[in-house]
Design brief:
The protein contains five helices and 15 strands. By secondary structure, it is of the alpha/beta class. The longest helix has 13 residues.
Length: 220
């Protein structure tokens, strides 16, 4: 398990509530499952339980799970969902665009602009369709869990040129409006920052590309 840092959340009384982000590598790919932990209350949101249920549950430690949040509905991100759901009994949130992928009704929708409470802190949902219709980023102060929407060096995989164009529009309207220092934690591999990706994204958007470009695309 890798500790990625704290996001500072201010309450109405001015008290700082820190949300810690931890990464748990699961599955043979591997895939990044994340734990968003409220340091004040011990409440934990589990993000993308893709595999290895026992490893995820062990990583909770003494934390109290409060919900499962899904960045999208692809199998490698939900492989352990049923087992984690049974073990914890917590509600599951996913965007309606991907809800059919989980094979069961979600307990609540992850809608663009909404905030999910995790203990004393809050996580904001940003809809970023393209990789899938219901892909979302989960943003804390200073960092975001971006699923497979964006990686170091390029956008997430897309199934058509139209989906790639949608992904680029989504990223331009969300991720690339955030401060350069914002850390981006993807569904696979290492993290990056908005500032590290911005120059190549801008250059890519200002370049000509084949009309059928899609799939695994890099900024370069």
């Amino acid at each position: 398990m890798f500790f990625l840092g704290y996001a500072k959340i201010f309450t109405d009384e001015g008290v700082i509530m820190k949300l810690g982000v931890e990464r748990v590598e699961v599955g043979p790919w591997p895939m990044n499952c994340y734990l968003i932990r409220c340091q004040a209350t011990g409440s934990v949101a589990i993000v993308d339980p893709g595999a290895d249920t026992e490893l995820i549950l062990a990583a909770l430690g003494e934390g109290e799970p409060c919900c499962v949040l899904l960045t999208h509905g692809h199998p490698d991100h939900i492989g352990a969902l049923d087992d984690v759901r049974r073990a914890t009994g917590v509600p599951v949130g996913i965007h309606p665009g991907d809800a059919g992928a989980i094979g069961a009704d979600a307990d609540f929708p992850l809608l663009d602009g909404m905030e999910v409470e995790v203990g004393g802190g809050r996580v904001r949902v940003h809809h970023v369709p393209g990789h899938t219709p219901g892909s979302v980023c989960l943003r804390l102060d200073g960092e975001a869990l971006v699923g497979d929407a964006i990686f170091p060096g390029g956008p997430g995989h897309t199934g058509s040129h139209q989906a790639l164009r949608q992904s680029l529009r989504s990223l331009g309207a969300t991720v690339f409006t955030w401060p350069d220092e914002t850390a981006l934690h993807p569904g696979h591999g290492p993290s990056t920052t908005v500032g590290a990706e911005r120059p190549a994204f801008v250059a890519f958007m200002n370049s000509e590309h084949p009309r059928d470009l899609h799939g695994d695309v890099s900024w370069r």
